[in-house]
Design goal:
The protein is of the alpha+beta class and about 550 residues long. Helix content is about 50%, strand content about 15%.
């Protein structure tokens, strides 16, 4: 899985769109970064920008944006309702997929160090990037704001983490850190009553409600021995919520901020609202996402509702998303466009999914054309994906067989593994063609000078190694499918044993076909030690695959006679 982080810098300019565009323009110059949202606020005189990408690209774009903001924003003339201390007031990094919070925090520190040293801007770390818990809260760091920081920065306990111990009059200071992904999520109710909506919000939010004597609304507030209000916590952690009325829709909603969806998921919040609403005589009619959501959160919701239905979770990614959308009612108020609401989908490069996006006829026609790619490598990967698909189908049929209800979990787990293998092999269909294209690009490089010749040779060698590794990975991945198919032949629905058998034949073809590609590409390698080791490993895997596949084919044939 690719590592993806999100960056949501807040810039102290919300009026001049030309200034804001100068900042967002430099973000978009960085390859591997996608600008998702620009939200200027006039009253706050502040713009929130959202972009995502792989970590190094994101921190490069963030650095360039902070640098540009320092050039085009003069904090000595800034006024706005929102608390602020710098041209780039705060710059959080958020892990989205394939990366831990600890790793993200290290990238925040790397960015902070560069901003402090190269731009001479005082930088304070916050949240997970700040080891000192006494100064990791944003509001505590920013207390005193721009005007008060000229003195605050001189206090030993408020020396910046990076940069000069001198407040920058024009750029101010910047807070950089790592925090959890925040999902803004609204749940729709069949009422117009804000009071009832707030009652539900108080039931679920972590802060809960103030404890009162007698009547929970008008009763006297209960206080502890120190005079502090006593609160009854809500049912969900990492959850903020409030009720409000949306005139546009004519309904009340529970407006929810999930500050850590790994602690409280979207589906947990939805289910809790449903329970609370029902107790109060209301019904949840649907929900809506405000902004973006990680793919992981949607897939988890899909699996959650399939498990509640006692169905197999080993279905396609697309079906998991559809189950999540329908179960949460995310399409009640407006159509739900996964490509624009799921972060990873907004980042997808369509050029790298050209083949798998085709229908069967188009794919066959493209293969049959005079172009050398897609060729045997892509076809081997595709045949392998069909083998995995057949094994997964048998697992799902077995999970849904009447009388086998006690085995749903067993077959569901196999089906889930099959989906993962299938998706890896489908990705390899385009990857094999991409590897061939990279190989051909190497031959197109200039070779006029000795330096250019050396660079060209190195590029071709690296592209050839990549072209060898892709089919070898197909061999390994396809081979994993035999375990699934073996389980289905032995314990699966015997009415589908021939489907599992055909799956084995597909895997046998996929592995040998990919092996051919390893051999033909390895012939071109200059690094013969690398080539010989790869070929030896491929031969060993081929022999093992054929032995196991032939044994499974014999079992299928024996069961049919």
């Amino acid at each position: 899985m690719n590592q993806i982080i999100e960056c949501v810098p807040n810039f102290s300019e919300g009026h001049d769109l030309a200034v804001i565009k100068q900042i967002t323009d430099v973000i978009e110059t960085v390859e591997g970064v996608k600008l998702l949202d620009v939200d200027p606020g006039k009253a706050t005189n502040r713009t929130v920008v959202t972009f995502v990408g792989e970590p190094n690209a994101v921190i490069e774009a963030a650095y360039l944006a902070i640098k540009k903001a320092a050039e085009v924003i003069d904090m000595s003339k800034h006024k706005g309702e929102h608390p602020r201390m710098g041209a780039t007031d705060v710059c959080p990094l958020i892990p989205v997929s394939g990366i831990s919070m600890e790793e993200t925090a290290e990238y925040a520190k790397k960015l902070g160090k560069r901003v402090g040293e190269e731009l001479n801007i005082p930088v304070y770390l916050y949240e997970y990037a700040q080891p000192n818990k006494e100064r990791n809260n944003l509001s505590v760091i920013r207390a005193g704001e721009y005007e008060g920081f000229f003195k605050k920065i001189k206090q030993p306990e408020w020396a910046p983490d990076f940069g000069p111990i001198e407040f920058n009059e024009k750029a101010g200071g910047t807070v950089i850190g790592a925090r959890d992904f925040l999902i803004a999520y609204n749940v729709n109710l069949n009422t117009k009553s804000v009071r009832l909506a707030n009652s539900v919000a108080f039931d679920i939010r972590e802060a809960g409600r103030v404890l009162r004597e007698g009547n929970p609304i008008t009763g006297k507030i209960v206080k502890d021995a120190e005079g502090n209000e006593v609160r009854v916590p809500g049912s969900l952690k990492a959850c903020k919520a409030i009720g409000w009325f949306i005139e546009e829709y004519g309904i009340a909603q529970i407006s929810i901020n999930l500050t850590n969806y790994k602690i409280t998921s979207v589906h947990q919040a939805f289910d809790e609202v449903c329970k609370s609403a029902e107790k109060r005589g209301m019904r949840v009619t649907g929900s809506e996402l405000v902004g973006l959501i990680p793919l992981e959160a949607m897939l988890a919701a899909g699996r959650h509702y399939l498990i509640k239905q006692k169905r197999s979770v080993g279905v396609s990614e697309e079906e998991l998303i559809q189950i999540a959308v329908k179960s949460l009612g995310l399409d009640e108020l407006a159509p739900f466009d996964a490509n624009n609401k799921i972060i990873e989908y907004k980042l997808r490069d369509a050029s790298k999914e050209k083949l798998v996006g085709m229908n069967l006829r188009s794919f066959a026609n493209e293969t049959a054309s005079e172009s050398p790619a897609p060729g045997g490598g892509s076809i081997s990967a595709y045949v392998g994906s069909l083998g995995a698909s057949l094994g997964t189908m048998v697992a799902n049929l077995s999970a849904g067989k009447r009388g086998w209800e006690d085995q749903v979990t067993y077959f569901s787990e196999w089906a889930d593994k099959g989906q993962i293998i299938k998706d890896k092999l489908l990705k390899a269909v385009d990857e094999d063609t991409h590897a061939f294209n990279q190989f051909m690009l190497g031959f197109g490089l200039p070779k006029a000078t000795e330096e250019e010749k050396a660079a060209r040779i190195l590029a071709i060698e690296n592209a050839t190694k990549y072209a060898c590794q892709v089919p070898f990975n197909v061999m390994e991945t396809a081979f994993e499918t035999l375990e699934l198919l073996a389980a289905m032949i032995e314990k699966g629905n015997q009415n589908s044993i021939t489907d599992a058998g055909v799956g084995v034949l597909c895997i046998k073809t996929a592995v040998r076909g990919a092996y051919f590609n390893v051999l033909v590409n390895a012939k071109e390698l200059k690094d013969r030690a690398y080539a010989e080791e790869l070929i030896a490993n491929a031969k060993s895997l081929l022999a093992k695959n054929h032995t196991e596949a032939d044994a499974l084919i014999a079992k299928v044939e024996a069961a049919l006679v």
